[in-house]
Design brief:
This protein is of the alpha+beta class and 245 residues long. The chain contains nine helices and six strands, in the order ααββαααααββαββα. Helix content is 65%, strand content 9%.
Length: 245
């Protein structure tokens, strides 16, 4: 039967000599023999065991799990459990990394829309990214409340044209006016703005915000702190966030 030294096992398995020695110290791969000079000697079975250890390490198994596996009298009874646990762990890690990549991608995308970039801008965008879902849910609520108003508008126009029922259009005008006032107040009560110059979080007057030039994510406003007029990043209101929290 062939015998292998520590260096030969390391070379055949593509690891360092120190790694083979470490597995011996942990009791995972104990040499079957020692030469007269005290050198470790490994058998074919030891080499096969080393290949298995390397495979498990490549799959991400921690040393403690591998040690526990080989300490069992019948390791085949627990290998499926360990594989399932490792699969779940790796999937969680992948999901976590995916979230981090999405965050980085989101920050890079948002930076392109900022007029003047500074390191502090990253903090503003990070805050925006955390509040993004709450802002999206609020806008969805507004859209849902607007569906009945839109349906009434279409119905009133059609009936006015086809049947001459002008009064239904008048009713829609009153309802739409009330809804418009309510939804504007609701919206601006639930959002704040971050100044790109001094990074102050502020809430403008409804009148200023309503008439200001805006994009889907920003609005040109005058900061009450530094008095600069810039496109300010729109975020979910911290005050409303505390209420809901």
């Amino acid at each position: 039967m062939s015998k292998y030294t520590t260096g030969e096992v390391a070379k055949l398995c593509g690891v360092s000599v120190r790694t083979v020695q470490y597995y011996d110290d942990r009791g995972i791969l104990v040499p079957s023999e020692l030469s007269e000079g005290g050198r470790r000697l490994y058998t074919e079975d030891d080499l096969k065991r080393m290949h298995i250890i390397c495979f498990l390490r490549e799959a991400g198994f921690p040393i403690n799990s591998i040690s526990a596996l080989f300490s069992e009298e019948r390791p085949e009874n627990i290998i499926s459990i360990l594989l399932e646990q490792q699969e779940n762990t790796l999937r969680e890690e992948i999901l976590d990394l995916q979230k981090k990549l999405e965050l980085i991608d989101g920050i890079r995308h948002e930076l392109k829309e900022i007029e003047s970039f500074s390191v502090e801008s990253i903090g503003d965008i990070a805050y925006f990214m955390k509040q993004k879902n709450k802002l999206w849910k609020m806008r969805c609520t507004m859209v849902l409340t607007g569906i009945p108003v839109t349906a009434l508008q279409v119905t009133s126009v059609v009936l006015w044209i086809t049947s001459g029922l002008w009064w239904l259009f008048a009713v829609w005008t009153c309802v739409a006016s009330v809804w418009g006032i309510w939804v504007s107040k609701y919206y601006f009560d639930h959002v704040d703005y971050i100044c790109p110059e001094c990074h102050e979080v502020f809430k403008p007057s409804i009148k200023e915000a309503f008439w200001a030039y805006h994009t889907p994510k920003m609005r040109r406003l005058t900061c009450p702190s530094c008095h600069n007029r810039r496109l300010c990043l729109e975020v979910y209101s911290a005050k409303e966030d505390k209420k809901n929290g």
